[in-house]
Amino acid sequence: MSQWHHACGRWGQGRGFSGRSSVKRTGGKHIPERVLKRTLLQKNAFPPWIFFIKLREQNEELGLIIDLSYTRHYYKPEDLPETIPYLKMCTIGHQVPDDDTIFKFQCVVNGFLKENKIMLGLTS
């Protein structure tokens, strides 16, 4: 098992989308499912297109969406704009992914960042 097979201590303390992350070129946010179930009623849930409107208002551009969740419960790929590439990488919650999944993720992100200067979106 590699040295990277440990979960970050902050992993369970997700926050909602509040704008671009302080880390340049990435805008990943993690919201644990238990937090969503506890705080977000279905009538208050927002569809993905609202997220894209917010990005546009902030003059941001999203170049790739990587979905790391193990479900299609919250949205469907058909709900996303066809102009933004979408990749689904099923990872089981509360488990550190295996080396192959980590390597695939790193290859996708590094390949994207070499060719693009726009934001990368991660969902989990």
Automatic annotation (TrEMBL):
GO terms for molecular function: polynucleotide 5'-phosphatase activity. InterPro entries: mRNA_Capping_Enz/RNA_Phosphat, Prot-tyrosine_phosphatase-like. This is RNA/RNP complex-1-interacting phosphatase-like isoform X2. It comes from Physeter macrocephalus (Sperm whale). The lineage of its organism: Eukaryota, Metazoa, Chordata, Craniata, Vertebrata. The gene is LOC102977048.
